[in-house]
Structure formats: C-alpha cells, structure tokens
Amino acid sequence: MVLSQVPRDWWCIIIDLWLLSMDAPNNMSILLDVIQAVQIGLDCGFVGPVDLVCSYGFKAPPRPYPLQISEAIFEHFIRSTRPV
After folding, report:
1. Which residues contact 41 (CB under 8 A, 6 or more apart)?
2. How far is 14 from 30, CA to CA, in rounded Å?
3. Which of 18, 39, 47, 52 is the most buried (most CB within 10 A)?
4. Would residue 34 count as lying in a domain?
5. Is residue 8 part of a domain?
6. pLDDT tens track of the chain, all 84 residues?
7. Is residue 52 part of a domain?
8. What is the total count of domains within the chain?
9. Which residue in 15, 14, 56 sits closest to 35, CA to CA?
C-alpha cells in the first residue's frame, strides 16, 4: 500500500528492519528461529528467559544442553506449543 493511498484517519507505522550477522552466514537462520520462538512464547504467556529457546540460540544460556538435545527440545517447543 502506498502512503498516499492510506486514509488520513489511519495510523500508519512503517518499520524497516535490517538483520546483519558478523558470524557465519548460518547464524541468521538461528536468529530468525529464536525470534519466532520468542513470539510463540509471548503468545503463550511465557515471562522471562525460556531455557528451551536460550539453549538452542545463544552461546551462554541459563541452562545449557548439548547441541543435539537442544535442537530436539527446540523443535518440540515450536511444534507443540499452542497459544492460549
């Protein structure tokens, strides 16, 4: 939608987001996975750090798990968590 076509009584917010990773190119997909999981957690009412997400996406999570376990737990979190 072009801004000139937006009625004057509407509130319009435009957000331009640019994600840049200085690490390996593969890290961007992990960052997007974490953003998706954070949104799911917010929709389900989670508050504070979600250990399942932190162990998958961050180098120093509150509760670290081995890589294979954290990937399996993260995938289970994404598939099984339903918003209330």
Report:
1. 50, 53, 81
2. 25
3. 52
4. yes
5. no
6. 455 565 666 666 677 777 776 766 667 788 888 888 888 888 888 888 788 888 888 888 888 889 899 889 888 888 887 654
7. yes
8. 1
9. 56
